[in-house]
Write a structure and sequence with these properties.
By secondary structure, this protein is mostly helical. Helix 30 packs antiparallel against helix 31 (645-658) and helix 31 (645-658) packs antiparallel against helix 32.
């Protein structure tokens, strides 16, 4: 195996594997055996089974590069170790025309392990074939193999069978007819292409088949786990899951191609050593010209006619069988000859069935190699020919997609027809998956002059595709910024709304408002912009303007489409949530539900459900939130609108935190926060970090909580409430009431805070004063909070207010009311606190304090559990004892991923299905393995198959 790269002068291992040197970082395919242990066992069992019958044959079939030769070599080594006589006969194209050529070479190589006199006699007979014919060879071979079989079972391996000359095949057939003390078994490797009917090999195999002396073993492509084992043997450091998945996808489980992929990555400087493991820089595998030639020689016949047809197929890519005439035209071959070559490529496994009547390359890397072997000028000409040929056919959406592929490769700047074709294909792709539309819009824009009438429309559509795919920073860059000149054209309202929306998601509220104010002053007055303005004005403490904008939006809702209604209602609902106007929310929730039920597009329905999930989570309505989440998750996978993943993640994490599934909430946050940060969803990241800090505070994990609270910090005063509240909670739990008091008072004194935010801060401050036994301060603060309007309280906030009041005044009814709210909405921590305060107030103390201990123990809320225990001891009551138990709880997302692993899906497939990044899937899997006690995918899948994790 190759050696690890030496450390540099500073003692660090180089970050990248440099250009391929030959001595190498990656082992040669012939040198590496890994990932085929199961196949080796099956092959050895088949050989031993054939030997039990006296004579027989075992043929290993597989595509080129699948590892047949290496597997046979391993089997021969194992058979030698078992005391069998083994003769390995390696055949190739050069020796195929020489009588007994491969056999002669094998005898010369192995003569030390064979009877010397008889071997020399057979070699002499082979030399005399031109003068004396074949009889002497058959006689000498019979004597040699009789002696071998008298001593021990004997195995002859013919690799590669298709290049073994006919004379050797006939000789082998004769040897199999002879009896001996010990068995004789012939084994060999064959491509998945049946030999021609007249071929001696075909006759022999047919005879053995009739006599039931033949067993065919098909070598299937390697699984992802097998490829991982292969890379572990080939590389000096472990391969990351994303590298393994990339190599498996590009190679299709072909061992030779897998190693060629890694070598190509190393040669291209894209094999990066990161944290003691290799990963791929990018998602493509660059093949050098030499590597392409080497690969094609191994995987394809060298017949120029075959190469031309294969290149034409590579240029078309996935195609219906009806395109065979186009393949012939591109290859410059007669149709009947092209059909014959095409059938051969299918038969040999180079091409495979794709869909109902389509064909594609079995291995993307082979198609890539063929495509790039075509010169650039020839490629351009061929794409033009293909586009013209396809345009002559009756139009259809599938045909438009084919045409667009060829137009994309040949279009020139300003080409009106190309711009129209690419724009149409981008729109079609957007309806399927926004991410797929993005490169089409980019290409169409690259062809469109600045003054072109379609440029603004294309810019808007590209921005929208980036926006709904959750790539917010890219959307802002594509759509413009407040620093640019005012947007012009009929689509400027939509473009403005998209850029404003991206800025808001990225927590850039002031720039968003500046752009919105400027465009509204310039005449922008759409429904969407009015609803956005209502939300933004509320965030910025401009309530009068917010109400005016909300009224404007409400007046236009009746004339809008379902999708437009949902977009506007979502912003209006967020506005009421920020303002704490929960009394106005039920009507908006009803309208959102109705609009969602009538929406004909999955994206619009997902928008409504993600908004509802967010609203319910913020209010602490856990049951309604979980119902909305259950409806939203399947839609997210269907339409791929990643923009709405952020509110759904937040809703899941907040609800899990409310209901006491703290580990699930932390897992959700850890898995999603990095991706959301990269995409630009900073508003949601801040709120998620606030939830994380709060959980750690109540667990007594101060340093971890402090880091999370610092990560939640924001310059915007509304979002800053999240970090301030989390930091104050940490101070409170650590017993530093003065620090908590100062922090909350400073923040609450800011002017123009939204009512809901101020009320929540005042309730938290009242909780601090209740802890400090300052009833007058509690009463004053709660009265001030109530002046904001009692509907400014969500369920948790109202329960907290009643707990603070009950503690400060001894009002047991207030404590009971808080307990009822917590029970009704499954607010676990508040339920525990209510039991603690009720017990401390002397109301059924033993029962309430015991219940508090149970709740806090289940949560892992160590400081609260200690406090309840201390109150029990103060009353001379027994403190319940618990044994710590490791949790194996999987979150909803973790469960989905585990089930997809059970179905055999790779990380990339899982990422696409759940609209996650591959890195996020890897992080989830790491936690799943820890929680379930499984070491990898195979163990996890087996455990799920057996129902052990249900």
């Amino acid at each position: 195996m190759a050696q690890a790269p030496a450390p540099d002068a500073g003692g660090q291992t180089p970050g990248r594997v440099g250009p391929w040197s030959g001595a190498g970082t990656v082992g040669e395919p012939e040198e590496i055996f890994a990932g085929r242990a199961r196949d080796l066992g099956e092959l050895l069992e088949a050989i031993e089974s054939a030997a039990a019958g006296g004579t027989g044959a075992v043929v290993l079939r597989g595509e080129p590069g699948s590892g047949k030769s290496r597997l046979l070599s391993q089997a021969l080594d194992a058979l030698r170790a078992r005391g069998r006589h083994v003769l390995g006969v390696g055949a190739d194209r050069l020796g195929a025309s020489i009588p007994y050529g491969a056999l002669t070479g094998a005898l010369c190589t192995s003569r030390r392990s064979l009877p010397s006199r008889l071997t020399a006699e057979l070699l002499d007979a082979l030399d005399l074939v031109p003068q004396q014919g074949h009889q002497g060879v058959h006689t000498a071979a019979a004597r040699l193999f009789s002696i071998l079989r008298e001593d021990a079972p004997t195995v002859v391996c013919l690799d590669d069978l298709r290049f073994v000359d006919e004379d050797t095949i006939v000789l082998v057939g004769q040897l199999l007819r002879r009896r001996g003390r010990h068995p004789l078994v012939i084994t060999g490797a064959l491509r998945r292409l049946d030999p021609p009917p007249a071929d001696a090999l075909c006759v022999l195999l047919e005879r053995l088949g009739r006599d039931r002396q033949l067993r065919m073993l098909d070598l299937e492509p390697m699984s992802g786990e097998d490829v991982a084992a292969l890379l572990a043997a080939a590389l000096p450091h472990p391969a990351s899951p994303d590298l393994t998945e990339l190599v498996h996808r590009h190679s299709g489980g072909n061992a030779y191609l897998a190693l060629q992929n890694v070598r190509a990555l190393a040669e291209g400087g894209r094999l990066v050593l990161d944290a003691a493991e290799y990963r791929a820089a990018g998602s493509e595998v660059p093949l050098s010209a030499d590597r392409r030639l080497e690969l094609l020689r191994r995987m394809l016949a060298t017949d120029p006619q075959v190469i031309r047809v294969a290149q034409a197929a590579a240029l078309l890519g996935s195609m219906p069988i009806a395109r065979i005439a186009l393949v012939a035209e591109l290859a410059g071959q007669p149709l009947h000859a092209t059909e014959a070559v095409f059938d051969r490529l299918v038969h040999e496994g180079v091409l495979r069935r794709s869909g109902d009547d389509g064909y594609d390359f079995a291995h993307p890397v082979v198609r890539d190699a063929l495509y790039h072997q075509i010169g650039p000028a020839e490629r351009r000409r061929a794409h033009r020919t293909a586009a013209a040929w396809l345009m002559a056919l009756p139009a259809s959406p599938a045909l438009d997609a084919e045409i667009a592929i060829h137009v994309r490769e040949t279009a020139e700047f300003g080409d009106e027809g190309a711009i129209a074709v690419l724009s149409r294909e981008a729109s079609r792709a957007f309806a399927v998956a926004p991410r797929a539309a993005i490169p089409w819009y980019h290409r169409a824009l690259a062809l469109t002059p600045p003054e072109h009438s379609l440029r603004l429309q294309l810019t808007t559509r590209l921005t929208r595709a980036l926006f709904v795919d959750g790539r917010l920073r890219e959307a802002m860059d594509a759509g413009g910024s407040p620093a640019r000149e005012p947007l012009m054209g009929g689509a400027k309202d939509m473009l403005t709304a998209l850029v404003v929306g991206a800025l808001m998601e990225n927590a850039e509220f002031r720039p968003a408002l500046a752009l919105l104010d400027k465009e509204r002053a310039a005449g922008a007055d759409s429904l969407f912009i009015a609803a956005q303005a209502a939300h933004l004005y509320t965030l910025e403490g401009r309530p009068a303007e917010a109400e005016a904008a909300a009224a404007e939006a409400e007046a236009r809702l009746g004339q809008a489409s379902r999708g437009e209604q949902i977009d506007a209602l979502a912003y209006l609902a967020h506005m009421r949530c920020v303002a704490g106007a929960y009394g106005a929310l039920p009507q908006l929730v009803t309208r959102l539900k109705e609009a969602a039920a009538g929406a004909d597009r999955p994206g619009s329905r997902l928008h409504a459900l993600s908004t509802l999930s967010f609203l319910f989570a913020m209010q602490g309505d856990t049951r309604a939130c979980m119902q909305s989440l259950d409806e939203a998750h399947p839609l997210l996978a269907v339409c791929g609108w990643n923009l709405f993943r952020a509110p759904l993640v937040l809703a899941r994490a907040q609800t899990a935190a409310h209901t006491g599934q703290w580990q699930a909430a932390l897992s959700e946050i850890d898995s999603a926060a990095e991706d959301l940060l990269e995409s630009g969803s900073l508003s949601y990241v801040a709120m998620l970090r606030g939830i994380q800090a709060s959980i750690h505070a109540h667990r007594g994990e101060w340093s971890t909580g402090r880091r999370a609270a610092e990560a939640a910090a924001s310059d915007h005063r509304t979002l800053a409430a999240v970090a301030v509240g989390a930091q104050a909670e940490l101070d409170f739990m650590r017993g530093d009431l003065d620090a908590a008091r100062r922090r909350l008072r400073t923040y609450a004194s800011q002017p123009a805070l939204p009512a809901h935010v101020r009320a929540r801060m005042l309730v938290r401050l009242a909780d601090v004063e209740a802890e400090a036994a300052a009833p007058e301060a509690v009463a004053r603060l709660l009265e001030e909070a109530a002046d904001s309007g009692m509907d400014a309280f969500d369920h948790p906030g109202f329960a907290d207010a009643r707990l603070a009041h009950g503690r400060a005044t001894g009002d047991v009814d207030a404590l009971r009311e808080a307990a009822g709210i917590a029970e009704r909405h499954n607010l676990a921590l508040l339920r525990g606190k209510a039991h603690l305060y009720l017990g401390s107030a002397g109301l059924d103390a033993e029962r309430n304090l015991h219940q508090a201990v149970e709740v806090f123990h289940a949560l892992g809320a160590v400081p609260w559990r200690r406090r309840a225990g201390a109150e029990l001891r103060r009353r001379n009551l027994k403190v319940p004892r618990h044994r710590a138990e490791p949790t194996t709880l999987l979150t909803a997302t973790e469960t989905q991923i585990a089930r997809l692993v059970q179905l055999g899906q790779g990380n990339r497939q899982i990422a696409l299905a759940l609209s996650l990044s591959i890195k996020t899937v890897e992080r989830y899997l790491s936690r799943i393995y820890v929680k379930t006690g499984r070491s990898g995918r195979l163990e996890l899948a087996r455990a799920l198959d057996q129902g052990l994790l249900d």
